[in-house]
Amino acid sequence: xxxxxxxxxxxxxxxxxLAQLDKDLTQVICTCLEVPTSAVSIGLEPVAPDVxxxxxxxxxxxxxxxSLLRQPDYPLPSPDAAHQTKDI
Length: 88
Prior knowledge:
Layout: E1 3-9, H1 15-33, E2 41-47, H2 52-62
Parallel strand pairs: 1-2
């Protein structure tokens, strides 16, 4: 049962954009993983830019770097930044 979690900078998405995102992501997951559409779930999480590093980059990208299919092309905080209270 594939599940996709997408965190993104907080942005208002229209119903049309949401429907297109759902359709496109579901289609590619079903094709690549050979599962029915009924098996796919997708979560969307809008995140404020000022907390991106502490809530997303450190725990989901830096800490799981070895399991990422794709690495981002922007500077990431260092793992030792986790104990800091402010975002970089």
